[in-house]
Fold:
Amino acid sequence: NAGVTQTPKFRVLKTGQSMTLLCAQDMNHEYMYWYRQDPGMGLRLIHYSVGEGTTAKGEVPDGYNVSRLKKQNFLLGLESAAPSQTSVYFCASSYLSTGTNEKLFFGSGTQLSVL
Amino acid sequence: EDQVTQSPEALRLQEGESSSLNCSYTVSGLRGLFWYRQDPGKGPEFLFTLYSAGEEKEKERLKATLTKKESFLHITAPKPEDSATYLCAVQAPYFNKFYFGSGTKLNVKP
Structure:
């Protein structure tokens, strides 16, 4: 069981370039999330999905787009990268809400630098 | 506004020196409070979930407690391998929405 796998682990972009981060989970989770982690600010939700074919905005969605064409995959896209998007990006997944089993399973992160 | 504040930002302990980390929160209708451990270069890893005031959970040298306004993560006789950043997150009642604190970076010296 790999859990949640993110690719790539590191990436350097120039301002204006685009890229896609891939997240894959093998736990048959319904919910998937993209967070960014910046020093002193905690994890902030970018976008999330409650099931295949669905996406929704989180706290900081501007400049990002997502897609969930397959249940196990959640893609995060940056159309035109900006230095403010330099961050560590984490994908997470969780079971459908049951009231007692809602913990998040995280990937190992992607360190993105935008020059 | 829903908020989570963790203190201290950083904590240095000698091996065996017990202490507590604090997580205070303001959220309407708390659904659950979560503690995660994050090692450098890795994603957060789940430790505990607490659902109601007065609840306690334990795992090895860690014990988490919950009141109506805050949670504590007590570390008893810590070891160097307990060094990590500890994150607190609260779950709002609507959807699986989690608010994370900025974490406490714990360093345990041998």
